Amino acid sequence: MPSMAEASITVLEQLDQLEEIVLEGNRIPFSGGRLVNEQDAIEVMDALRGALPAQLGQAVELIRQRDDFIGQARQQAEEIVAVGKREREQLINSAAIRQEAERQVAEITNVMGIVLNKCRYFDGAYGYEYGYH
After folding, report:
1. Which of 54, 104, 107, 112 shows its CA 20 to 30 Å from the CA of 39?
2. Integer Cα distance of 131 and 129 in angstroms
3. What DSSP letter does each residue of the chain carry, written as one string?
4. Angle at 92 between CA 87 and CA 93, to 5 degrees
5. 84-120 burial, b if ≥16 CB within 10 A, otherwise e?
6. pTM recorded for the entire structure
7. Which sequence spans correspond to the domains of the chain?
8. What pLDDT does 3 receive?
9. Residue 50 contacts residue 9 (beta carbons within 8 Å)
10. What is the C-alpha separation between 107 and 122, in angstroms, rounded?
11. Mean pLDDT of successive 10-residue segments in the chain (133 residues)?
């Protein structure tokens, strides 16, 4: 099977030959028409018919390959987006867990500060009375 470029050149060459046959034909006065060598024109048209199916088949195959490529690229893009969303959720969850832990640490620190202040108050206010000093 000829390559796409070779088939394209062949078709273009054959179209040029057909054009040449028409232009070399004798003009018919007052009609704009030409008399052409029928056999030559038919041979070139038959050759074109033979070349076009191969070229069309190659074009169809290229379109199929392109569609496959686009489908694979789209699937990969969707997978990348899905992975990105999962990672984002994990980061958000990690950040939320960290924030909650920090909030709890702050709350415990606050409570411990209150307890410590009460202990100091108790020690200061009542420590001598109970012999803690």
Report:
1. 54
2. 6
3. ---HHHHHHHHHHHHHHHHHHHHHSEEPTTTS-EE--HHHHHHHHHHHHHHHHHHHHHHHHHHHHHHHHHHHHHHHHHHHHHHHHHHHHHHHHHHHHHHHHHHHHHHHHHHHHHHHHHHHHHHHHHHHHHT--
4. 95
5. eeeeeeeeeeeeeeeeeeeeeeeeeeeeeeeeeeeee
6. 0.45
7. 4-130
8. 57
9. no
10. 22
11. 58 87 86 86 86 81 94 95 92 87 92 85 61 54
In one-letter notation, the amino acid at residue 17 is Q
Which amino acid is present at 15? L
Tokens found for residue 88: 């984002």
